[in-house]
Specification:
Layout lengths: L1 H41 L24 E10 L3 H11 L6 E9 L3 E11 L3 H9 L4 E11 L1 H27 L3 H33 E11 L2 H5 L3 H25 L1 H24 L1
Parallel strand pairs: 1-5
Antiparallel strand pairs: 1-4, 2-3, 3-5
């Protein structure tokens, strides 16, 4: 019996040691998870590893300077509506479209104000074509704003936020404590709202880079000579209007003089009474 105990004693010792090691590994895994989560919260988002890859943020101009081109054009038109329709018709040939338009009219001129969006590759061609539409160009200018740094900074921020989001999701899949899970989900929701805001700004900036803006003003002057020398019908109309205005003025003047009229009536009545008395004496 003693010899049997000596034989199985090493096996029992090895079993106890293996069980202790497995327990230690499981506890260590939980400790490492909590440690990873705490370290993740302490690391700034800009220092997180970047593994962001998305086709939504690919840009054909990624190796060039990022420019936002804007142009302003103003010209005088001889036939305003015809020029307006002409512009509307040839915009599709440049893959351009009207973003907004406004028409105004006064005693001196009629004016259209158009805001046109056009692909950056067609910007110069459309500007030259628009310049040839009117009678004479009164103003033409263009400028380019360099937004390369803003573009790259915004893209890097999104990549960093995406990497942090992926890390949070990894921690969430490993978390076993309810407290840790709730904390990670709260941070994920806040981070997702930030990412959506940055992505919206990025898309707007990318659209401004890919599509240039042209502010177009064209106007038609009214016939001032005709205004200085009105036609016979206009002069006749003004004459009737003048006569009516004079009649109204006289009527109002008589109304204002009503006390004098009343006094004149009393004087006339007094004179008539005196004449009657004189006749009766004779």
């Amino acid at each position: 019996m003693k010899q049997l105990f000596l034989i199985i004693q090493p096996a029992i010792f090895l079993f106890i040691v293996g069980a202790c090691q497995n327990s230690g590994d499981s506890t260590g895994q939980l400790v490492d998870l909590g440690k990873d989560f705490e370290e993740m919260l302490d690391v700034p988002t800009t220092e997180q590893p970047s593994n962001f890859q998305s086709e939504d943020f690919e840009n054909p101009l990624s190796n060039q300077r990022m420019l936002i081109k804007r142009g302003t054009l103003e010209f005088e038109s001889v036939q305003l509506e015809n020029d307006y329709q002409k512009i509307r018709n040839f915009l599709p040939h440049f893959n351009a479209y009207l973003e907004s338009e406004n028409f105004s009219n006064n005693d001196y001129s009629s004016t259209y104000q158009l805001r046109i969006k056009v692909p950056v590759a067609q910007f110069e061609s459309l500007m030259d074509t628009l310049s040839s539409v009117g009678k004479r160009t009164t103003n033409k200018s263009s400028n380019a704003e360099d937004v390369t740094r803003s573009f790259r900074d915004l893209k890097a921020t999104i990549e960093s936020k995406k990497a942090l989001e992926n890390r949070y999701r990894e921690l969430l899949s490993k978390a076993t404590q309810v407290k840790d899970m709730l904390e990670i989900e709260r941070n994920l929701n806040d981070l997702r709202n930030e990412i959506e805001g940055y992505e919206g700004r990025f898309r707007t900036l990318q659209t401004d880079i890919n599509y240039s803006t042209i502010n177009l003003y064209f106007f038609q002057l009214k016939d001032q000579k005709q205004g200085l020398e009105p036609s016979f019908f206009n002069r006749l109309t003004k004459a009737f209007q003048g006569g009516w205005d004079l009649f109204i003025w006289l009527l109002l003047a008589l109304v204002r003089l009503w006390p004098i009229g009343v006094l004149g009536v009393f004087i006339w009545m007094a004179i008539m009474m005196l004449k009657r008395k004189n006749k009766s004496k004779i």
